[in-house]
Fold:
Amino acid sequence: MNKKKRPLYLYYLSIMIVILLLNRFLSDLLLSRQEEVTYNEFQTALIGKKIDEVQVENEVITYTLKQDEKHKQYVTGNMQDPNLTEQLNEAEVKYSRIYPQEINPFVSLLVTFLLPVLIFWGLGNLLFKRLQKKMGNDGMTFGGGGGFGNFGKANAQVYVEAQSGKRFSDVAGQDEAKEALLEMVDFLKNPKKYEKIGAQMPKGALLVGPPGTGKTLLAKAVAGEAGVPFFSISGSEFVEMFVGRGAARVRDLFKQAREKAPCIVFIDEIDTIGKKRDGGGIGGNDEREQTLNQLLAEMDGFDGSKGVVILAATNRPESLDAALLRPGRFDRRIPVELPDLKGREEILKVHAKNVKVGTNIDFNAIARATAGASGAELANIVNEAALLAVKDNRSVVSQTDFDEAVETVIAGYQRKGAVISTREKLIVSYHEIGHALVAAKLKNTAPVHKITIIPRTSGALGYTMQVEEQESNLMTKDEGFEKIVTFCGGRAAEELIFHSITSGASNDIEQATRIARAMITRLGMSEEFGMVALETVSNQYLSQDTSLMCSDDTAAKVDDAVMRMIKEAHEKARAILEENKDQLHELAKYLYERETITGDEFMKILSQKEA
Ligand code: ADP
Ligand code: MG
Ligand code: ZN
Structure:
């Protein structure tokens, strides 16, 4: 729809004009040809037998003349002539008396008051709907939000199978989660089977996992598989509207669900309403607590056999109120974790189905290069690759597109036209080769996949990409330490060659410190502290924030230990580079000229030099 936005008053103005015109037209039709005359004149006409027909209504006498039947004349005035009937008979005119009908007061109210209101309401509603459509509502909503009439209703969206359209086959990996949900699908399809045995389906299941792992997708797929209505509401929607509406929305949502059972109620981002209640506090969060209480009450009031399944999703399960997790509420927890190597490969393939890809694309290699990526990021990589192909006017997506897309998603876009001085470029070349060379000389590190000194929008001036040969779930102490050594390689090369240091290593320093800290405080990989947990992760799925749980004294010792570990790693990196200075020069020069080299090229030069 591309109608220009017209101000509301224009609509009202045009309605007014229409009404006025109508009025005018109608009165013309009915009244225009009437003419008021005196009673005398009427009597003269009557006696002269010029009158054809007479109508008497209250004090008004309306009559037509014989020679001009269309032209009505009328006489008004309070004259109850007692001889009128006699005179009329004498003149042999047709006459009739009209008794005005008492208009029903209800009808008149309806016509004069309610009708216009109704018309305006209808028009307003139409406008409102149109507005909604304009704002990108995809028209799948039909369970509320319709106009002014139900402002207070929860805007629960009702998806029906055909429209949700997601199936389990759209969700790659996540086999355990799918299996747990399959049981629910079966229950929704066939509640009787469970009732017969007396088995109770859990009322609610909580999908927990990091952002972008497919929790929302899974919930939709359950509805799609079961072919039942899908009421979805996001926790944040509860809080957004008017104060005091949250609880009403919950009530309304469940009322709708009860009517449509079997169905699924899906509460996304439940942590926004389900946060732990913090006893009191001034002003507090009364609104949210009321909403939460209402939710708990509704869940308790539910008969589990009715075929309503309540799903919820969150990425901060630790912040949920314990009452929500009690038996009979969200007592089943379904983890939706980041995909492993196989999962990543499958997700890439699922999304690659929607784009035209060239033959023999190595999805396994892409999956290996994207350890730690979520489903949403992988979907994004496929899309980025397709965009790159379009940009190049190619009809299929190639392996190089995928490689470039991985870098784009991980490191940001290439910053074309960024001006970098030749000296800076040289420093970056040595820095990156420093990382790569150190990694190559160590035993427990992942092979180098690619080195580049093309700047990225993320601010990185270059980077070295390492790709594990296979997925590993455990990190040995040696691997951890050698990772730190590799991170130190960049700075070490700068020191060795330029005898000065730059800011280019800030990210390396951060990462090295994070690993060292984790090894000491959480993984028990230091001799001093051994297997003592000194830190806890406070948010499992989000930013991996940690909080210390030891005395200040110990904390100081931890800092000491971290510094020592990094110092040791840094010295080791420096020693390696010193020993292989020739190769460092050679490779840095090569990278400086090429700007991007692959792991294979890197290894070839390295082994030539060694031979
Ligand atoms: P969450 O709700 O866990 O934050 P979503 O379900 O919204 O994540 O996922 C976002 C998008 O990422 C999905 O629409 C889908 O395109 C993609 N995605 C995530 N996980 C998967 C998966 N396991 N299989 C296929 N696509 C996935
Ligand atoms: Mg989600
Ligand atoms: Zn670096």
